Every structure is written in structure tokens, then in C-alpha cells.
Amino acid sequence: MSPELAAILARSARDAARALVGWTLLKDGVGGVVVETEAYEPDDPASHSFPGPTRRNATMFGPPGRLYVYRSYGVHWCANVVCSEEGTGAAVLLRALEPVAGLEVMQERRRTADLRLLCAGPGRLAEALDISDVDDGAALDQPPFELHAPRSSPDVVTGPRVGIRRAVERPWRFALRGSDFVSRPRPRA
DNA sequence: CTTTCGATGATCT
DNA sequence: GATCATCGAAAGG
Predict the structure, then answer these.
(1) In whole angstroms, how large is the CA radius of gyration of chain A?
(2) What are phi and psi of A80, to 5 degrees?
(3) Which residue, A67, A96, A143, A155, is most buried by CB atoms nearer than 10 A?
(4) Which one, of A22, A182, A29, A176, lies nearest residue A103 by Cα?
């Protein structure tokens, strides 16, 4: 793993979630720029790692830089980046990308031509990149995945996390300011 | 525009 | 049996 990525992922989920905005994520050359993330910390009642290690969340307690993939509402797949120290259970939920590469492939997978709806939400993002349970535990800096650093530091806004019932007050959602490709409800401009 | 609701399966109580 | 880090279609204003 590059020193730059390792340094980002070594930090808390909050810091890693903020720092991952602007990076480009690809699977098999298909994907785009990360424009929205959420942090899930250890001792965070909203995190899947909160109850401790189980079969589902085992990847969360493994090495940083791996993908933790889980099924949401029995219908969708959602993808996280494991971060902080191995064994802590910290992770960053990937919530939205700005589509950049493989647009036609993603449009086909998502069955929509609207670029704003290709990767705007964790379930949509996973479907567009063809991420599922088989990718759980995969290293994000090794094929078929690539993670590329932004050229300059992006302008990031924060807000409450989406879709959770517990610890709703923690402002651990991060998004690229003004992006047209974030999920709803839209963060403040 | 906004709100409501069904789908569908693993996990938890 | 209830809950859930979601989405899209349908119904309501």
C-alpha cells in the first residue's frame, strides 16, 4: 500500500472518512471519485462492529485497507473501507461516487442513464461497481480494485449520518461541497 | 415537490 | 418475531 493511503487509513474513522473524499475508486477500471462517506467508530452504537466480532463483521476487525461488504435490508450490498488499527472495528462507509470511468457499464448495471443516480447511495454504488459478498475482505489497492489520490485537497462538508437509528447526533457524514452526485438527503452547500 | 410503503434476508432478541 | 448503515415505485399535495 502507498504510504499516503496507509497514513490516511491509520487514523480514526472520522479522519479517514474525511480524507477519503476526493480519492478515485475503481473496480476492473469502472468507478469514479468518492464524493460522500460516513465514519463508523469503535464504541459507536450505530456501527456493525459495536457488539464485537461476529461472522458478518469479521473483516472490520482485520487489517486496514480491506473492503467490508454486507447485505442491507436483504436487498442491497454496501461497502466499507476498514481503517485505524487492526482489531478496532473502525470503518468508513462508501456512500457515493462521481462517475468517471466505465460510464456505459455502470449505466447498464444500474439500468438508468442518469449519471446522478449511478452511484448516489451505498446500494447504488455497489451495484454500479459490481461489488458484492465475494469482494468482502478484498484489498482496495490490489486488483481488481484501485484507489488513487486526489491532486488537491477537496472542500468537504459534514452532516448527520443517513439511515441510522442510534447515535444519530454524531456528525460523521462527509461530502464534497456542492457535488451533484451525493445521496439524499443532500448535505448543506 | 414530499411522504409512504413493500421487497427481502441476515442478524439479533 | 423485530430490526436494519436502502432503494424505487406509488400515492398524496
Answers:
(1) 15
(2) -125, 155
(3) A96
(4) A29
- Residue A29, C-alpha cell as written in the block: 477500471
What is the model's pLDDT at position A186? 84
Q: Which three cell numbers stand for residue A166?
A: 442510534
Q: Gap from A185 CA to B9 C1', in Å?
A: 26
What does the pLDDT read at residue A189? Answer: 65
- Residue A177 beta carbon within 7 A of nucleic strand B: no
Going from the first residue of chain A to its last (189 residues), give the mean pLDDT of each consecutive group of 10, the final group possibly shorter: 97 98 98 98 97 97 98 97 97 98 98 97 98 98 98 96 94 97 86
Asked if residue A101 lies in contact with residue A110, where contact means CB atoms within 8 angstroms, the answer is no
Strand B reaches within 7 A of the A56 CB:
yes
Q: Which residue blocks in chain A are alpha helix, DSSP H? A: 3-9, 13-20, 103-110, 122-129
CA–C1' span, A111 to C13, in Å? Answer: 30
Residue A122 CA to B11 C1' — how many Å? 20
Query: What pLDDT does residue A138 have?
Result: 98
Whole-prediction pTM: 0.97
